Amino acid sequence: MPPAPTLVEHHPATFRTRGVAAPFITPLLAGTRVRESRHSGVELVVSVELVVPNPSGGRGVYILNWQGVRSLCQPTVHDTVLFQRFSRLDTITPATVRDAALALAQEGYAGQEAATAARATQLADRDLRVQTHVLLLTRLMAQVEPKNAIPSPRAADFDARASAMLHRLAPRFGTTGAQLSNTLGAMADAYAPSGIAGPSGNPTHGNPTRGNPTRGNPTGRNAARVPGILERLSDTASELRQWLDASSDNDIAGLGDSVLAAMISARDTGEKLLDRILRAADDPVASLQRWTLDLAASQMAAMRCEWLLDGWEQLCLLWQTAATDATKRAALLEIAPLVPVLPQEALHWPDLNVPASAMEEACRVTSQQDIWRTGAAAFAMIERNEKLRAMSA
Amino acid sequence: MGRDPQLRALNREIQSADETRIRRIVATIDAMKRRGEADALIAPLRPRLNALRPPRPLRFARLLFAPLAPLIVPASRWRAGQPTIPRTAIPPIALHVQQALGADAADIEGAINGRTTEETDLIVRLGRVMWPEAARILLQPAVPATWDSTGLSETVYATLAKAIAALLAEAPALEAIFAQTANNRLPPPRPSIEALVGRVAAANPAVLPMAVVLLLDRMPQAAAIVAERMDQRPIAEATDKAADLLLRQLSENDQAEQQIAAGSLADAAEATGRIATLLRHLEKTEAGSSRRDMLQDLRQRLDAGCRARFESGLRDELLAPLEAPSADLCPPELEKAARGLRLLGTEARKAGSGAAYDAMLEQAAGKLTGDVAADRLTAVERMRLIEILAGPDAALALRQS
């Protein structure tokens, strides 16, 4: 019998200590985040741990390993295996957590619908990375060799000319052509989710034979991760605003307004941040130089938007799958405790002017009983959560 | 049955029709431009339709009477003074309201064209405007032009019209109360319920039983709130009548059993949960010995009906496809059946026989660990099915074996 877990106060200072939203499907694990855990003893041990919201909705969180989670609830097989996959990751970021969840879903652990969606998303992600790489190479050639005609990515000699250009450029950055090529690959992987290769259905650059960002995205939503989430946030905020305005009876003790304010703040900050990331990619020579000097810091900067928006997609999906006033109010009760808290680190991001109020917890929903997500209701919620996994893939 | 060969064929099909056929028959009749005597074909199917609840095209009459559905009974069972509405009254009243609404009715027809009764958000949105308007029209003395077709007197119309008007006027408030429970996640809002009951009692006390039926049908837990006002004689009488009606509706024509037997296993689980909750709350209200006997009888029938539905579902929807050597297995269908069984097993415990469901679920999960299942399903597919039936630990045991 594991010892009873202890509640602790949780005011994350950084995004890493806040953790990454874990796409678990067990109803009682809603809002759980996964993060690296560093224990320094004789030697430093790095493992993963979970930040589990107080199930009553009250103050505090549980910091748990998997055994601790099992003392709180009975997690699904999907969640058990997903945690095992998290434990094998080198680093915990929104991207690595998402990839692990997609790989698991693709194996069928979240059902057939989620498996199909995950496969399509993995292909679309790969295409997007390829297309982003081609785009960066093309922009780099235009910047480095402005007098030469830019070859079409479809041209047979495109790869050879790109490689030659990188080899010529490398000495300026004090590196080799091969290393520069690797750095550019890392840059493409980090920038791909920001959608610099263009929105769904309207790729601005690239060769269809080298990747198709619209593949697996029949919804018409932007296939790139970050603009896709921002679109969802914008749509959800607008629908929520309309619904709240329609009747004063719709809100529940101001929950709707609090959620909406946090949602709009996340969207606005996300849009500003995305704009900065896209502008950085407009000057690939300067960007590549920065990336060569400090790869880790550059990767972190390119992924800031993903860290910022992490956790919001689930909230949007919960709202967008509610059809009637009764189910919308139920969704609001479920969404409110999941609103991601912004860590202090965001205050220090340059030129973003994130208001200090954004650091505060948006709202709190305490519940005296868990009937709505235990017993028969739990089965329905697991099925619903699997559908959300398919929608978010 | 008339000479129409299509109708004769449908009539033959109705005999011993299964769920799929009933859905097809209803869809065929709904698609007819002039239904006429085809409506008579549906009449014997009504109890099963109430349980199956197939999506029907959203017509003006269905939209108008949507909030009053629990009160509607066949004309043969309707008696003056009972808190019910005869089905035959619907067409003339709907036509009367439609004509009185004029251009607004045409707008409504446009909005519901091609939509179905499953679209509850649309029904509520249009109803918020339409139901109070209809209430105003029905309070006028004019009798519908086609009222004769009901075979009921104009005096009966006057009484029914007043009752329907009072209920339609409160329909948006009732929807708002239900919305406030956030799908029954929050307790029913006491002040709103008391205000609604108070308004109906003041306007037309005779309608109170009907209003309580509508309230309890959507929110059985509201029984406790209404019961607290039982010291007021009209409310006590109304609650008594409403409880009688709800219990009678479940008892007559094996309605409780039919609601469990019809539809999917998940539908059966939902019906079981709803009926069990209603019985539990009605047990809490003060009742005479005949009511207690009726509740006891219904509980036993609910238990037997659940056992029967569970056993047939397990046999036909899960084990038979798994054991049939030639059948192509569809994992999502098997998962749907397994999930339905688990849901039904969980809800059915409220009526009794808990241990029996555990044993049957474990037995079914055991079949999935055998070679037959291993040859036809992937390890992950089997694991998911075992997890649904017997829980994650049983499924993880398969993964570790």
Please give the number of β-strands of chain B. 2
> Looking at the structure, what is the overall shape of chain B?
globular
Q: Considering DSSP H and I runs of 4 or more, what fraction of the residues of chain B is helical?
A: 55-70%
Chain pair sharing the greatest interface: A-B, 31 and 36 residues
Q: β content of chain B, as a range?
A: under 5%
Tell me the distance between the termini of chain A. Answer: 37 Å
Indicate the topology.
The complex is a heterodimer of chains A (393) and B (401).
Chain A: E1 7-8, H1 15-18, E2 20-21, E3 33-40, E4 44-53, E5 61-64, H2 66-72, H3 77-87, H4 94-106, H5 112-144, H6 158-169, H7 177-191, H8 225-246, H9 255-282, H10 284-293, H11 295-302, H12 304-309, H13 312-320, H14 325-335, H15 376-392
Helix pairs in contact in A: 3-4, 4-5, 5-7, 5-15, 6-7, 7-11, 8-9, 8-13, 10-11, 13-14
Chain B: H1 5-14, H2 19-31, H3 38-42, H4 46-52, H5 60-65, E1 72-73, E2 85-86, H6 90-101, H7 103-112, H8 120-138, H9 154-180, H10 190-203, H11 208-218, H12 223-227, H13 233-251, H14 255-261, H15 265-284, H16 289-323, H17 331-348, H18 354-367, H19 371-376, H20 379-390, H21 392-400
Parallel strand pairs in B: 1-2
Helix pairs in contact in B: 4-14, 6-7, 6-8, 8-9, 9-10, 9-11, 11-13, 13-16, 14-15, 14-16, 15-16, 15-17, 16-17, 16-18, 17-18, 17-20, 18-20, 20-21
Question: Mind explaining what this structure looks like?
Answer:
The complex is a heterodimer of chains A (393) and B (401). With 393 residues, chain A is α+β, with helices and mostly antiparallel strands. Helix content of chain A is 52%, strand content 7%. With 401 residues, chain B is mostly helical. Chain B has a two-stranded parallel ribbon with strand order 1-2. The radius of gyration of chain B is 24 Å and the shape is globular. In chain B, 38% of the residues are buried. The model of chain B has no long low-confidence stretch (mean pLDDT 86). The chains are: A alpha+beta (393), B mainly alpha (401). The interface between A and B is medium-sized, with 31 and 36 residues.
